[in-house]
UniProtKB/TrEMBL annotation:
Major facilitator superfamily (MFS) profile domain segment(s): 14-446
One Pfam short name: MFS_1
Source species of the chain: Microbispora hainanensis
Bilayer topology: Multi-pass membrane protein
Main location: membrane
Keywords of the record: Cell membrane, Membrane, Transmembrane, Transmembrane helix, Transport
Keyword Transport: yes
SUPFAM superfamilies recorded: MFS general substrate transporter
Annotated compartments: Cell membrane
The protein, known as: MFS transporter
Record field: transmembrane: 51-68, 80-97, 166-184, 196-219, 225-244, 256-277, 297-317, 329-347, 353-374, 386-412, 424-442
Length: 453
């Protein structure tokens, strides 16, 4: 692999553009959540319907991240990154001006398409430039944006109304666009006429979208189960794998991904890791409010150590891995995840607040270590020419795990809304998931590490 040498100022500008773009997806998936009640009130829609403002963003990003990663692999990241930022900026401005819920949902869908270009493009640029040290910065920005999103969204909504959570995006998006166009460098090639459509593999994309969206909709509907829906998901998933193994230019080269030392174990572990982590993150607040009597603000403060510690652990994760190696760091992160969710099985009406805070600290550390470690493994194991699509799949794995967690939280919630929530059943399930994460990591990391430098 050849390394592109750039002047330090241009390198810093390119990194700033990449970081500005990659923070937008986690920021906009979390910041808008706290604005749902004002949106519902202003647009005159039920809250259950208004939640589609958040749900459609997750579903769209889940599908578009790997698709746009494929485009970035084929045509280069510069034009795609700039186009994504331009679309996201237009969609954010339109969201702020929306006067109906269907229009706002449509704008959020377009916004998700635009910001979905950022992470896979960043992975392609980092791979092209041969500077893996930037991975820590990307992971830190992603984690921090997700953690501060609810706080920032709450402040903006209180000060300037819910429209402000969309206007605040514009300086970041337009600044990232300008910096990327000036600093990332020209793309290596342009697609032949009609070649991009063939390379993207429309049939594979449709089957992938049907599988992912169908699975997530099923999980969001739990504890209700749709047998026809489950059958449709299995059929779509089977069809996707069958098609991708035979397509001349597959959207996802499943043979390359499944090769020895490939990213499949990394992606699987990341889905399950996020399932366990977000199971605790989303499962504890209802219990704190309905069983222990804390109000929403107090419950949020008690959960905040999870997010805060995850940011600190991500920042320190790079030096820790350089000092001790990635294998010990990942296994330690898996062990702390197991300990954190297992501790929740002991929670009850007499659990003191300090125990919840302490458990949050324990849960935050593995998010930082495993998020960074698995991202680096994904980067190292992405087959040649597939860095963008694998980077997109990595982000999709994050969303899938989080939405699966939401579904399981709903499945373990009491049937009678007047009954207090009990997190222990969910915690048992999450403990089993965390144990599987450790098994996957232990088996997969037996091979010599290739990035402990």
């Amino acid at each position: 692999m050849t390394t592109t040498v750039r002047p330090p100022r241009r390198t810093r500008a390119a990194l700033a553009a990449l970081l500005g773009g990659t923070l937008l997806a986690p920021l906009n998936s979390s910041m808008v959540a706290v604005a749902l009640t004002p949106i519902q009130r202003d647009l005159g829609e039920p809250l259950a319907t208004t939640t589609w403002v958040v749900t459609v963003f997750y579903l769209t990003a889940c599908v578009c991240q790997p698709v746009l990663g494929r485009v970035s692999d084929r045509v280069g990241p510069r034009r795609l990154f700039a186009a994504g930022m331009a679309l996201a900026a237009l969609a954010s401005a339109a969201s702020a001006a929306a006067t109906s819920l269907p229009l706002l949902v449509l704008c959020r869908c377009a916004q998700a398409v635009g910001v979905s270009a950022a992470f896979p493009c960043a992975m392609v640029v980092i791979r092209r430039d041969g500077d893996a040290s930037r991975l820590s910065a990307v992971a830190t920005v992603n984690t921090t944006a997700g953690a501060v999103g609810p706080v920032l969204g709450g402040l903006l909504t209180s000060w300037a109304g819910w429209q402000a959570v969309f206007w605040v995006n514009l300086p970041v998006m337009l600044g990232a666009l300008v910096l990327a166009w000036r600093a990332i460098g020209p793309d290596e090639r342009r697609p032949e006429r009609g070649g991009l459509a063939r390379a993207v593999d429309p049939v594979g994309v449709v089957l992938f979208a049907a599988t992912v969206v169908g699975l997530l909709v099923l999980m969001l509907a739990l504890p209700a189960v749709s047998v026809p829906g489950a059958v449709a998901v299995v059929v779509a998933g089977t069809g996707f794998l069958w098609w991708e193994r035979r397509a001349a230019e597959p959207f996802v080269d499943v043979r390359a991904l499944a090769a020895a030392g490939g990213p499949v174990p990394v992606l699987g572990a990341f889905v399950l890791f996020n399932l366990a982590y977000y199971g605790a993150f989303y499962g504890l607040p209802p219990w704190l409010q309905t069983a222990l009597g804390f109000d929403a603000a107090q419950a949020g403060l008690l959960i905040m150590p999870i997010a805060a510690t995850s940011v600190v652990a991500t920042v320190l994760g790079g030096p820790v891995m350089r000092r001790f190696g990635a294998r010990p760091a990942l296994l330690a992160g898996g062990g702390l995840l197991l300990a954190g969710v297992a501790l929740i099985t002991t929670f009850g009406a007499a659990t003191p607040a300090w125990a919840v805070v302490l458990d949050g600290v324990v849960l935050g550390v593995p998010y930082g270590l495993c998020n960074l470690g698995l991202q680096r493994l994904m980067y190292e194991r992405a087959p040649a020419g597939m860095t963008g699509v694998v980077g997109g799949l990595f982000q999709s794995a994050r969303y899938v795990g989080a939405i699966l967690a939401v579904g399981l939280v709903g499945a373990f919630s009491p049937a009678d809304p007047s009954e207090p929530a009990d997190p222990r059943g969910l915690a048992v399930a999450m403990t089993a998931v965390a144990a599987v994460v450790i098994i996957i990591l232990a088996r997969d990391l037996r091979r010599p590490e290739r990035y402990d430098q």
